[in-house]
Amino acid sequence: MLHLAIFSPGEIQKIFTGKKTIDGRFSQIRCMPYKSIEKGDLVLMKKSGGKVYGYFVAGDIKFYEGLDNKQLEKIIKLYKDELSLNESFWHKKKNRTKYLTLIEIKKPTKFRFPVTVKKRNLSGWISLGGQSQSQIELF
Fold first, then answer.
1. Of 32, 34, 108, 114, which cross-links 51 as Cys (Cβ 3.0–4.6 Å)?
2. Domain limits at 59?
3. pLDDT tens digits, residue range 13-63?
4. How far is it, in rounded angstroms, from Cα 136 to Cα 130?
5. Are 125 and 32 in contact (CB under 8 A)?
């Protein structure tokens, strides 16, 4: 399946340089990509308010639900370096995360030229379809 993920400024560059090797999606409610992404799926990386700069292949995926602060703290300690997120982000998510999806980032690939994609909703993640990589054509 093909997905479109929205990233904060600077996060895509961290992926391309290898500083960020896991993408974490934190939410209060059950929403994408929770239970809607599988190993081997392609994830397009779009800068918030900007263009799509590349993609990665989803590696191992972990889903967590019903999290409390103690459980979240444990996960944060375990994956803090791979997620490459700052302290202020963690403090914002504390008391506000019940669902968490961790996606291992494999084979990040930068497009030669960024691609414009029209997106009109505020969602940070959209599944675009396709059953397997062989059915997805990027160009």
1. 114
2. 2-132
3. 999 999 999 999 999 999 999 999 999 999 999 999 999 999 999 999 999
4. 6
5. yes
137 within some domain: no
The answer to whether residues 100 and 83 touch, using CB atoms and an 8 Å cutoff, is no
Two structure tokens written together for 20 = 């960020």
CATH number at residue 55: 2.30.130.30
d(CA 136, CA 21): 23
Composition of the chain by helix, strand, coil, percent to 5: 25, 40, 40
Collapse the DSSP code of 50 into the 3-class scheme (helix H, G, I; strand E, B; otherwise coil) and give the result. coil
Residue 138 lies in a domain: no
- What is the pTM for the complete model shown? 0.89
- In 3-state terms, what secondary structure has residue 89? helix
Count structural domains, the chain.
1
Q: What is the pLDDT of residues 52-91, one digit of tens each?
A: 999 999 999 999 999 998 999 899 889 989 999 877 877 7
Does residue 139 lie in a domain region?
A: no
